[in-house]
Design goal:
The complex is a heterodimer.
Chain A lengths: L1 E5 L9 H15 L3 E6 L11 E3 L4 E5 L2 E5 L3 H14 L3 E5 L6 H8 E2 L2 E5 L6 H15 L4 E4 L2 H11 L4 E2 L6 H5 L15 E5 L9 H14 L4 E5 L17 E5 L3 H10 L2 E4 L9 H8 L4 E4 L2 H6 L7 E3 L4 H13 L2 H13 L5 H15 L6 E2 L3
Parallel strand pairs in A: 1-2, 1-6, 2-3, 6-8, 8-9, 9-10, 11-12, 11-14, 12-13, 14-15, 15-16
Antiparallel strand pairs in A: 4-5, 7-17
Helix pairs in contact in A: 1-13, 2-3, 7-11
Chain B lengths: L2 H55 L6 H16 L5 H19 L2 H44 L2 H5 L27
Classes of the chains: A alpha/beta, B mainly alpha.
């Protein structure tokens, strides 16, 4: 099958949607399909050979974080050319309502269109304004996918459409088989608690975790908090005595992320909103790392309401501290849960997920190929 | 008052109304075509599902009673056109029920797989899942088309033309748990 995939966010930075698009493309190529990805990226950003770069993007506040979006007449022209030259059997647009290449492609394309909805918007006011503008283009979607029940609810409530759920994919094996790094490995005296995500993005919830640190240190004095992810770690509100427990690692590679989870005693996901899936939770579970997450709908679903990991009320540092201290101080229970979780995550493995995406493509593809609509 | 002073706003209003009607007509037309495409995909996937059941029924892998019921219900479903919604839907629901009964429980399916019907069972699962998807996408297209047809402007200008209002395809296509998690 010839598949055209559109990614709305720039490959200049790492993000959930970009990684999803990259993994899906590579999985499909591995299965023998022809794939071309259209995505924004600077000309000097190294991209995989199957990516066609659409050019530069503009950082804009969108859906609770700063997204690098591409729009304007030049982007429209490039999207049109890519659609016309691709002779795709199906075009798969990610985040078709984000005002970037996704919406442009949806507006321009004709023929079999599959769309995947990732996000769970938190800033509804700006989005509500956009509903009338996207409703007509959205009628062109042949088959809609939502990555979770939460993403599907958003689609139903805000746009009046429905979608089938195909979860995000994860490569389980690299996490399952990773080797821990000695310097990041937890010991009974110095257990390791891991955080992953942009340190300077409020909804990733690092502040909630740092707020729990004094109480956590009181109960587990030797605890180390490893903070992985880009952005400056702001320790202003952390008492000076506790600052030494925080070790900012900066952005980490995929291998390092797997090693981090493999050696950690606990992964904490303190996100405060805007999450529709929780891929990092699944990665931690694949590595067999116990998980403690805020009780957002998406996280609760991934953790099967708490049977595959623990939950605490969103934004509640005190509850986080108590739960984390319990889990780190008596690791036998959490480890047994983590072992069960490591088996349960198999259904998120890309080998399974890619087959389900292909099933959607097959039902969407008709006689005609993808083309450019007249405007 | 000169005639042009009266005519200019009237003409402008007509042009605007014309553009709006043209825009609505385009949307109606596009959705009608989408419903048609979704229907042909649904027909294709349902046919494949019934064919997979027929293959399994004729493979001697099942007991004779199950084989006969499954083959008969699959044939009946295949003979009815998708356009005859009520009859075809009833036949497809019956087929789903017959298949779930014929497959039995998870250990029965495991036995079936190990007795050489591995590929037939896998084919049944694949086609079943695709039929479920095709029906969801068809119903979604129908719902959107109906929503648009109910709008006042679309009704006043009779933009739906003579195309009959599409109806959703409601069947029992509940996944057979004996096959394990859906692919």
């Amino acid at each position: 099958m010839r598949v055209g995939i559109v990614c709305p966010y720039s490959f200049d930075v790492v993000g959930g949607v970009q990684l999803h698009v990259r993994d899906l493309a590579e999985e499909l190529i591995g299965l023998g399909h022809d794939v071309s990805v259209l995505a924004p990226a600077e000309t000097d950003t190294p991209v995989p050979p199957y990516v066609v770069t659409a050019g530069r993007s503009v950082p804009i506040h969108w859906n609770g974080s700063v997204a690098r979006l591409s729009f304007g007449p030049r982007m429209a022209a490039r999207t049109r050319r890519w659609l016309a030259d691709g002779h795709f059997d199906v075009v798969h647009i990610h985040e078709p309502v984000a005002p970037s290449l996704g919406l442009l492609a949806l507006w321009l394309a004709s023929g079999p269109i599959v769309a995947t909805f990732h996000s769970n918007p938190v800033h509804s006011r700006a989005l509500r304004m956009s509903f009338p503008l996207v409703r007509a283009p959205m009628e062109k979607i042949t088959a809609a996918i939502a990555v979770s029940e939460d993403a599907r609810r958003t689609l139903i409530d805000h746009y009046g459409g429905d979608a089938v759920i195909v979860p995000n994919g994860v490569h389980v094996a690299p996490f399952r088989d990773a080797e821990p790094k000695p310097e990041w490995r937890g010991t009974p005296e110095r257990p390791v608690v891991a955080f992953l995500g942009r340190a300077d993005e409020p909804r990733k919830g690092l502040a909630v975790l740092l707020g729990a640190l004094p109480e956590l240190r009181r109960r587990v004095p030797g605890v180390r908090l490893l903070v992985a992810g880009p952005g400056e770690v702001d320790l202003q509100d952390v008492p000076a005595a506790d600052r030494g427990a925080v070790e900012p690692l900066g952005a980490v590679s995929d291998e390092d992320k797997a090693s981090l989870f493999k050696g950690a005693d606990l992964y904490v996901a303190p996100q405060t909103g805007g999450e529709s899936f929780g891929i990092v939770l699944i990665e931690a579970m694949s590595a067999g790392c116990p998980v403690l997450a805020s009780d957002l709908g998406a996280f609760a679903r991934v953790l099967d309401a708490g049977s595959l990991g623990s939950l605490f009320p969103v934004g509640d540092s005190a509850a986080l501290a108590a739960a984390a201290a319990d889990m780190v101080a008596a690791p036998a229970g959490p480890r047994a849960v983590a072992d069960r979780a490591a088996v349960a995550v198999e259904r998120y493995d890309w080998s399974e997920v890619a087959q389900r995406v292909l099933a959607v493509y097959e039902t969407a593809v008709g006689g005609e190929e993808v083309g450019v609509a007249d405007h | 008052m000169r005639i042009t002073e009266v005519m200019t706003p009237v003409l402008a209003a007509l042009v605007v109304i014309g553009l709006v009607v043209w825009y609505w007509a385009n949307r109606v037309d596009r959705l009608n075509r989408r419903v048609d495409r979704a229907r042909s995909s649904l027909r294709q996937q349902l046919t494949r599902r019934a064919a997979a059941m027929l293959d399994l029924a004729l493979s001697h892998a099942l007991d004779p009673a199950s084989s006969i019921v499954l083959a008969a219900t699959a044939r009946r479903a295949l003979e009815l056109p998708v356009e005859d919604v009520a009859a075809r839907a009833a036949a497809e629901s019956e087929l789903s029920e017959a298949a779930r009964a014929a497959l039995g429980e998870a250990d029965d399916v495991a036995e079936l797989r190990s007795s050489g019907a591995e590929e037939l069972v896998a084919q049944l699962g694949r086609t079943w899942y695709r039929a479920v998807l095709a029906r969801r996408f068809y119903n979604e297209a129908v719902n959107q088309a109906r929503r648009l047809r109910r709008r006042r402007g679309v009704r006043w200008f009779r933009l739906a033309g003579r195309t009959p209002e599409p109806v959703t395809f409601e069947i029992d296509d509940g996944w057979p748990d004996a096959l394990g998690a859906a692919p």
